[in-house]
TrEMBL record:
This is TRAP transporter large permease protein. InterPro entries: DctM, TRAP_DctM. It is a multi-pass membrane protein. Belongs to the TRAP transporter large permease family. The chain crosses the membrane at residues 106-125, 137-164, 170-193, 214-236, 242-261, 273-294, 314-332, 337-354, 360-382, 394-419. The complex comprises the extracytoplasmic solute receptor protein and the two transmembrane proteins. NCBIfam families: dctM. It comes from Arenibacterium halophilum.
Length: 427
């Protein structure tokens, strides 16, 4: 337990001092090695670092990120949004529902919330303002809607959780479908209240011909989620193979059909994706070593004993876990949150009989909350850069959505059937 306290204190000091997350994870990990496991051979350390990320499952991350970057630079995002608008845009506040549905659609082919913010923000923000949504609400809606990308497959967050815990990625993806839908419906309810309160109207109702034209225009774009999800649940390919298919499909459609990609933009997308993946995999490598030290120090066993001593059942444990994730999410990026907390909390959760898929959904919803929680929610800064708005303005508009997110978190936490029903039916 002393080790856990020292890790936490050192990490907090580094975080407050403004160090990058690579250093926040790396320095405490190396300090633990030098101070507590100095006799552990360096060769074992190197093997743990390289062996932890040398898994085919993790190949899904760079491929899905590359596909998201390609689609963000191309036309798939805009065509999906156009179809959603044709279907629901006539309702009061319809462009708000279009924002939610478009973000969910793009999230279902990208798995990345920052990519969804960047791709959808510049398309939908002007339309939301044109429809007379308040500026703060429009900003909050764009940022929050993008968080469904972390729940709806192919979610990179769920891939990382499955890698850490050994939980079936297919089962997690199935659970993410229902949880992501619940989150989207909750945001839609808030949008309906805002539209009625401020008098926002909808678009003219699209005719059958216009809807059919939107379907035809989005036909190739719709092929992406159908191919990925249908292939995974139909047993045609694994999630990792689906990631490769998504890249090939994006390149073919954006370059040959939509003609929105050329060699230059393809190289630029590859370069940006390579930088993103270098950061992610360095964090995963350090997280592997930190998890190994946590296991050697028997911290999970200590936590299990503590839970038994205070007679904390699943209800109390899940509340404590949620508080820990919420606080961490205010300061730490989503991958680092999982690398720090999941190895210690997951064994406790399973010892209390909590379903691994259910716990994964709790983790994922907490991560989505962390992405938009001040002061350091990553997507707040992505939106600021994309929309050329001060971060303070985006934070001012995010609070109603944070409250909705917390309510959904409580619902998912204490009604596990929402998370486990779809996996049980499909698998």
């Amino acid at each position: 337990m002393i080790l856990a306290i020292l890790i936490g204190l050192l990490a907090v000091v580094l975080l407050v001092a403004g160090f990058e997350m690579l250093m926040v994870l790396g320095i405490p990990t190396l300090a633990i090695k030098a101070g507590f496991f100095e006799r552990l051979p360096d060769l074992i350390v190197a093997q743990k670092v390289t062996g932890g990320i040398n898994q085919s499952l993790l190949l899904a991350i760079p491929f899905f990120l590359f596909a998201a970057e390609l689609m963000g630079r191309g036309q798939i995002a805009g065509r999906l949004t156009g179809l959603v608008r044709a279907l629901v845009g006539h309702a009061r506040g319809g462009i708000g529902y279009t924002t939610i549905g478009g973000a969910m659609g793009f999230g279902s082919v990208s798995g990345s919330a920052p990519a969804t913010v960047a791709a959808m923000g510049h398309i939908l923000y002007p339309e939301l303002r044109r429809a007379k949504f308040r500026d703060k609400f429009a900003l909050g809606l764009i940022v929050s809607s993008a968080e469904t990308a972390l729940l709806i497959p192919p979610s990179i967050t769920l891939i990382v959780y499955g890698w850490i815990t050994g939980t079936s990625i297919t089962a997690l993806f199935a659970a993410g479908l229902s949880v992501g839908l619940v989150m989207g419906l909750a945001f839609a309810a808030l949008t309906a209240i805002e539209a009625r309160r401020t008098g926002v109207q909808g678009d003219p109702r699209a005719t059958v011909a216009q809807i059919w034209a939107a379907f035809k225009r989005a036909g190739w774009a719709l092929g992406m989620p159908v191919l990925i999800l249908g292939g995974i649940y139909g047993g045609l390919f694994t999630p990792t193979e689906a990631a490769v298919v998504s890249v090939v499909y994006a390149i073919l459609i954006e370059s040959l059909i939509y003609r929105s990609l050329n060699v230059r933009t393809l190289i630029e997308a590859a370069e940006k994706t390579a930088i993103q993946n270098a950061v992610i995999f360095l964090l995963l490598a350090l997280g592997t070593l930190l998890s190994y030290f946590i296991t050697l120090a028997q911290i999970p066993n200590m936590l299990i004993d503590l839970v038994e001593q205070v007679q904390a059942g699943p209800v109390m444990f899940l509340m404590i876990a949620n508080v820990a994730f919420i606080i961490a999410g205010m300061f730490v990026d989503p991958n680092s949150i999982q690398l720090i907390l999941v190895p210690a909390l997951y064994p406790v959760a399973t010892s209390l009989g909590i379903d691994p898929v259910h716990f994964g959904m709790i983790v994922a919803v907490n991560v989505t909350l962390g992405m938009v929680t001040p002061p350091f929610g990553l997507d707040l800064f992505v939106a600021s850069s994309t929309l050329q708005k001060p971060v303070a303005e985006i934070i001012a508009g995010i609070w109603p959505f944070i409250i909705v997110n917390l309510l959904v978190l409580l619902l998912i936490t204490y009604v596990p059937g929402i998370a486990t029903l779809v996996p049980d039916l499909l698998l």
